Each structure stands twice: as structure tokens, then as C-alpha cells.
Amino acid sequence: MKTANACIAAALVLASAGAAAADTADDLARGRYMVLTGHCNNCHTAGYTAKQGDVPEKEWLLGNAVGFRSELGTAYASNLRLTVRSFTEAQWVAYAKGAKPRPPMPWWSVHETSESDLRAMYSFIVSLGAAGQPVPAFVPADREPAPPYEVRRLVR
Ligand code: HEC
User: Using a 6 Å CB cutoff, which residues line ligand 1?
Assistant: First the structure.
């Protein structure tokens, strides 16, 4: 009886390990797709819009030292290769569902992203590896940011 239970336990472990491995390959592809179609690179990857997306994957999501200046201050799209991995996957899902970073971060779209897609994004972004530096700190509206920055009017 003991042996039978051990066999069942071993089979379950193998089955779940197999499922996890299959999920990971799918997750990475799905996560990559979500990052591309979620437009994360447009802001979080330096030069991505100027080069119309022609930036190698190893340079993706390293953050953008070109600030976005509005009447609310100057914000810098963060280095997601450093910030996302600082969360556990569960923390990331909770954060992505509730966070409201400053403009022009489109947090309302991220709130709409399904939990499984957020988990896939997490797997993909973490798989890119930790690299680069943190971006400059937010500069409040009453202070002059150092260039480079682009100006975005929020109130029209
Ligand atoms: C239009 C530009 C833009 C796009 C597109 C964009 N972001 Fe951002 N994002 C920003 C800016 C700017 C900040 C910094 C806001 C602040 O300082 O509060 C930011 C902040 C964040 C933060 C909070 C800081 C951190 O690293 O924890 C997360 C998480 C994030 N973005 C994830 C994403 C993801 C994932 C996508 C794609 C689905 C995305 N962003 C698309 C501009 C953008």
C-alpha cells in the first residue's frame, strides 16, 4: 500500500512537472506577444518608436531615459527588466491589476489584461534577464527636468 501511494505521488509530481514545462513554453510565447501587442516597448524601450520596432529583443524594456514631461511633472518609463522581477508572480498580478502609475503609462489597459496573460507577461519579462540601470527619478512639476524629455500635454 505504501509503495502504491509512493508510486501515485511520484506520478503526480511527474505529471505536474510536465504540465509546468509545457505551460512555460506557451507562457513565454504568449508573454512576448502580450508585450508586443500591449505596446510596452513603445515607451519602456529606448529608441523603439524612432526605429519603428527594429530593436533587438536583448534591448527590450530596459527603460527610457527620455522623460515624458506634462503639467503633472516628468515621468520616466521604468526598466521593467529590473522592476518586474522584484515582484513574485502573484504580487505582479495584484500590482498590475491595481497600480496607477503616472502618465503616460496606460494603466487602464493593463487593468483589463487577464490574470493568465499577466502571468505570461511576467514569465517572459523575467526570462529576458536583469539588465540595465534604473531610470531617473520622477521630477515634480515645479522643477526643471534635465534633458532629454518630450512634452505631452494632458489637458487640452
Ligand atoms: C505611452 C507610454 C507607455 C506605455 C505604452 C507603457 N508604459 Fe509603463 N510606464 C510608462 C511611464 C512613463 C511610467 C512611469 C510612471 C511613473 O513614474 O509613475 C510607466 C510605469 C510602468 C510601471 C510601474 C513602474 C514599475 O516598473 O513597476 C509598470 C509596471 C509598467 N509601466 C508596465 C508597463 C507594461 C507591462 C506595458 C505594456 C503592457 C507598459 N507599461 C506600457 C509609460 C508607458
Answer: 38-40, 42-44, 68, 75, 77-78, 80, 83, 101-102, 104-106, 110, 138
